[in-house]
Each structure stands twice: as structure tokens, then as C-alpha cells.
């Protein structure tokens, strides 16, 4: 009456790594010093493999963060506006980097630094 497929022993197959399915979340920026901020984030919920690095998009320029942990100290300029997003990357079986989507961007402005020491006054001779 009903047909049944022949059954055999269970099999196990490994699949290769792929880029993360989702973005890092909860990106925060802590201004540590005038020229240093600390970025913190939560890794993707579905990494699809081992995260080998993160990439920060800082004001539309990519900067590779060779860290596998979700914290990074980033050098910045004082009195400057920044827009930063993070994405996680894995390496596939061919050795190629595959990155997931970008996190929601975080915008901030670094503080103005204290002025430098004034120049030493010079005595001009009268002519």
C-alpha cells in the first residue's frame, strides 16, 4: 500500500564554514582618552563557523581588527565626528574570508583637547 524508502545506518556530514548569518549587536563606544576609544559588541548569534576577525567601518573606511574577541581599542583624533559599524568574518574551507552583515552604526564625537603650551615670547629689536 505505502512505499517506504530503504533505510540504512545514519550518516553524518560536515559542512564548511560560511560568513555569519547576522551582524554583531549592541555596539558601544567608550571614550577612554582624547585619542582612544574602546569598542565593545556582542558577537553574531549565528556565526556559521569560527570568527577569525572583525572589520570596523570607520567613517566609510574599512579597518581590519585582528581580534576574535568583541572588544577593541581604536585610535581616533580629537574633536572629530565618527560613524562606526562592525562586521564579523570567518574563513571558509578554501581559505577565503567571508563576512556577515554590518552592525547598526554608532555615531559619536571625540572631545576637544586642552590647548598646547603657548609659544615662548621672542623679543623683537626696534629698528
Termini distance? 119 Å
Outline: rod-shaped
Q: How many runs of DSSP E, i.e. beta strands?
A: 8
Encode the helix/strand succession as letters: EEEEEEEE
Main sheet specs: 5 strands, antiparallel
SS element count, helices:
0
Helicity, in percent? under 10%
Structural class: mainly beta
On the 0-100 scale, what is the average pLDDT? 87
**Which residues sit in consecutive blocks of at least 5 with pLDDT less than 50?**
none
Q: What is the radius of gyration computed over CA atoms, rounded to a whole number of angstroms?
A: 25 Å
Strand content: 35-45%
Question: Can you tell me about this structure?
Answer:
The protein has strands spanning 25-33, 36-42, 53-58, 61-65, 71-75, 81-91, 97-99, 106-109. It is built from no helices and eight strands. It is an all-beta fold. Helices cover 0% and strands 39% of the residues. The radius of gyration is 25 Å and the shape is rod-shaped.
Could you write a compact summary of the structure shown?
This protein is mainly beta and 127 residues long. The chain has no helices and eight strands.
